[in-house]
Amino acid sequence: MPARMEKRKPQAQQQRQQKQKQEAKSLKRKREQVSLDQLQDAVDQFDPKSADTTKFSNLPLSSPTASGIEASHFQAPTDIQARAIPAALKGQDILGAAKTGSGKTLAFLVPVLEKLYRARWTEYDGLGALIISPTRELAVQTFQVLTKVGRFHSFSAGLVIGGKNLKEEAERLGRMSILVCTPGRMLQHLDSTSGLQVDNLQILVLDEADRIMDMGFKSAVDALVEHLPKERQTLLFSATQSRKVSDLSRLSLKEPEYIAVHENAAASTPESLQQHYLVTPLASKLNTLYGFIKSNLKSKILVFFSSGKQVRFAFETMRHLRPGLPLYHLLGPQKQAQRLQITASYSASKCACLFATDVVARGVDFPSVDWVVQVDAPEDVDTYIHRVGRTARFNKDGKAVLLLDPSEEEGMLKRLELKKIPIRRVNVRENKKQSIDESIQNMVFKDPSLKYLASKSFISYVRSIHLQRDKEIFNLKKLDLEAYAASLGLPGAPIISFAKGEDVKKLKNMSRAALSDSDSEFDAEKKKRKARTKVDKMFERTNQDVLTDHYTKLLGDATDKAAEDSDDDFLAVKRVIEGDDLDVAVDDRVTLPSGTKIISGLGGEEPFIVDSKRREKMLKSKKQMLKFKGRGDHIVFDDEGTAHHPYRIQGEDDFKRDGSAEAQRRKFVEDEAVKVREADIGDKALVKEKRREKKEKRKAREALENGLASAAAMPSLGAPEDGEDPLAFLASLPVAGGTHSDTEEEEHEGRPRKKAKKWFEDDSADEKKTKGKKGKGKIIEITDEPDTLEDYETLAAGLLDD
């Protein structure tokens, strides 16, 4: 009986403990529900107009969010945060517009965390919040701020951007509560990832909404919104906001509240930003940029170009010129890991220069940027505002300079004045101007890849100007393109297709019926628009490659005839057909169809006949041309410089003539053994010599450390040998005033001696300088030349005396 009681006692204790745990969990849930109800009541009763919003502690926020804000060292909310957060907490859709660097990121991250916290969101509820950014860099920055502010929450957050493994991202998306993404990558997951649930989405955020909703992202945004539920909260934030009805209807906003904290400000840019513009011709912009960088070596500079090819060319040329501070370049086609590394390195630098496109013009926060330089004019005022917003952030000081071509000045200033942007003109000092045109030409001439990049840079810039909508500012006809090409190191301006005239544009927009009409005035242009192969395109690039002329001369008589008519190409070597080759060529021309080309001198036994596209492609194939020419003898050189055929199999008769296989083997082994022994002797001698040199250096170092440098230098002067007169030896020693002339010492050492510094000007000056200085040396005047041994001993004692 007592044993049974002992067994029942532990079971009762376990049941009692489980009951206590369940009661504790239920009490905890009740307390959390009570706190959530109190938080919701505080949000409902909060009135932003009458309440004090100068501190985060006065806002109705949950304890995890408040702790995260405090731990992230955010003290007082900015204007956009103080007005947007309370309205977003009440569930309203928001259109937020504020200057760059005003804290818009925190203004939408706090409502996202509070929305999911009050809904008691878990990983089993699917995706709760979606934050869309236009660029990868801005998405990464937003995700970093989210991890800091939301560190005390239990939500799972993910970053979805291009450049990463799609499968790895798809495996983790199903467990995420918050996602920060770019439009294209997120749309890809919505179309292909089955485990991603967005039916319960609570809140959608668009950072830099004007950029996301423009023509570049229109199709991606429209397709993305179709996957999302209509019953949701939507927040839109940007430095330059759009209030178009069409944009709002696309995103299904319901009575959004428009919050523009700087709408009535005197300017659309921060007051602490000093803005300048500089009028310089297009061909001199690289010179101006280099001179500016050389004058601001202790500053952090951000340089904007209109295209990635220009960024690459400017970076490569400036890197070779070595202006004196670290250089970085950032553009869209780079790999994601490289972009993140460059962004981190530039952010951590105190003095550096970053060449970039508009990929970092929006929202990206680089700490302590001193200068923003716009080499190419922005496409509109909004782009200008976003570019200069990379400096003077969070009420800090900053400077910006805009380089304008004379044809762009008037139109751009009008656009800036309409937006109330204060900007003044400055000029470059004459002593600060530098020219790098010759250096760029030398680099482009020596490096074919840099020449190719310069050509692509020219083409991309001209195309960007051609595609600009504001023709009052961007007029291609007013630009000196030849001078611009020369500034890039090119011998001439590359030919661009759209620059041929308006007929090309009309032809492109014509209907098929008009194109099929043989009497059409564009019939000649129609024939030119036939399908071209890669070979055709290569031969048309006469201004791209110096070898094109050589290849075109190989291809036909038309090119040869044109070369004969030209007077400039007087050194061109043309193919000459003589003798039997002439007869064969003439016979072949008679029998072969028209348009066939015959090329001789390629190394084959017969001329090469080009009668089809396949035969033209064979000219570019090394493998096919080797078959046509026949493989020659391959010769390699050994270490001694002896030429021989590699891996050639010897004939059986020749092998037997040299002896039996065993005898040849023994001979080979003996020869190799001799070579090895000789090499060992040389290696041992070399090792011995290195050990001896190392020992001598160690002894010399020990002698210097022990203060015996003077004693170690004495043998170089020559010691008296046996039988030599001691007086003659002492007479050869150097004394004050010098007994050895400089010419004798130069002949002894075999090299010129450096000119001694002039320490004293005259005797009176010597006496003044030597007074009061101890341990600086002693001057001994010699009246009579020493003759006896006693005189030399007296002189030596004076020299050695302290």
Automatic annotation (TrEMBL):
Ranges of compositional bias, category Basic and acidic residues: 650-661, 758-769
GO MF annotation list: ATP binding; ATP hydrolysis activity; RNA binding; RNA helicase activity
Coiled-coil regions listed: none
Residue ranges, annotated region (Disordered): 1-59, 639-661, 687-788
Entry-linked InterPro entries: DEAD/DEAH_box_helicase_dom, Helicase_ATP-bd, Helicase_C-like, P-loop_NTPase, RNA-helicase_DEAD-box_CS, RNA_helicase_DEAD_Q_motif, SPB4-like_CTE
Alphabetized CDD domains for the sequence: DEADc_DDX10 (cd17941), SF2_C_DEAD (cd18787)
Top EC class for this record: hydrolase
Gene Ontology CC: one annotated term: nucleolus
Subcellular location: Nucleus, Nucleolus
Domain Helicase C-terminal residues, every copy: 285-444
Superkingdom per UniProt: Eukaryota
UniProt remark on domains: The Q motif is unique to and characteristic of the DEAD box family of RNA helicases and controls ATP binding and hydrolysis.
Its biological purpose: RNA helicase.
Alphabetized PANTHER family for the sequence: RNA HELICASE
Protein name: ATP-dependent RNA helicase
The organism of origin for this protein: Xylaria hypoxylon
Lineage: Eukaryota, Fungi, Dikarya, Ascomycota, Pezizomycotina
